[in-house]
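User: I'm putting together a teaching handout on how sequence relates to shape, and I'd like one worked example. Could you take histidine kinase from Nonomuraea salmonea, show the sequence you're using, and then write out its predicted structure as tokens right after it?

Assistant: Happy to. First the sequence, then the structure tokens directly below it.
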Amino acid sequence: MRFVLLGAAVAGLSWFAGAGQAGVPSGLPVPVLVLIAAVAGVAAWHARRAWWPLAAVGALAYVWLLMWPPLLIASYQAGRTLRGARHLVAYVAGCLVVCALPLAVGGPQQTPATGPGNALLMAVAVVGLPLALGMWTRARAEVLAAAKERAERLEREQVMRAEQARAQERARIAREMHDVVAHRVSLIVLHAGALELRTGDPEAAETAALIGGIGREALANLRDVLGVLRAPRHEPTDAALSPPPTLGDLDRLLDQSRALGIDVTRRDEGEPRPMEETVERTAYRVIQEALTNVHKHAGDAGTDVLIRYGEDELRVEVRNAAPPAPHAGEAVPGAGWGLVGLRERVELLGGTLRSSAQDGGGFLVSARIPT
């Protein structure tokens, strides 16, 4: 579109320049002027592919009619296109010859004011200035392109450095988790297995077997997490391929809590229906974290788990009663970030999570998750 407008402008200016240069009519028939202006416009439009046809038309029109618009545009395109001093010198020399020829040849457009001084002035105005402007425009475009390329290269290098630092940090965390957490959990599983074999109390043996099973499950989950941390980015791992727990696995989680002495009651309200995995997985994690907090802080207090299926949301409530008596022994340590992480997970889905103490010493964790 830009070169179409350029062709139209060159054709119009060529018509005015050829019809009456300096107020002196050319004496050419109107159809001839229209043809010359049309050829100049087409050559200017074609300059997006090759500028030399416009230069040829401009040279002929200038020598014959002192028609300057085609030669002016050709000089600008030459400044943007020509590479090397030799080509520029050859073009300037050719243009100087073209500007000097009207003094010797004469034509319909020659006027009494035409002379060496005017010829030099026209050469500067029609050839020199457009050529310099074209060279400056090309140099500016090259500088901007080089600056853009350099900025993109620096950005890529910065991203690569950030990725390397992230990978190193992930590898360090994976090593720490493997050397510390996995080792301690493995010891728990081994001691639970030894207790199951050596004890003569059936109830203690059952409890030891439960502890061993939970420990082995924790080791499997930890192995998946370590695989995610150690795997390169965007590379699928066993953790990504294995299905995460959802509400379909909730009964097994509740049975584990019941085996540890907590009286857990589950109630479902509304019509159960399949939902997106992210919704079910988030609801599962809310209940899991709430039961973990009950184990840590409320001992064997009775706990109610409510799952309410709404039309456009899923509500989950975990409410535990006050502990029946102060818990004796060492408290279970925790980082204190479980509910914070859950709140962020629920808010990412557009939901809300609320946790508050209840009258009488109980505690409530409630989540609303849009479906």
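A couple of points you could highlight for students: The chain has a mean pLDDT of 76. Residues 19 and 25 are 6 Å apart (CA to CA).
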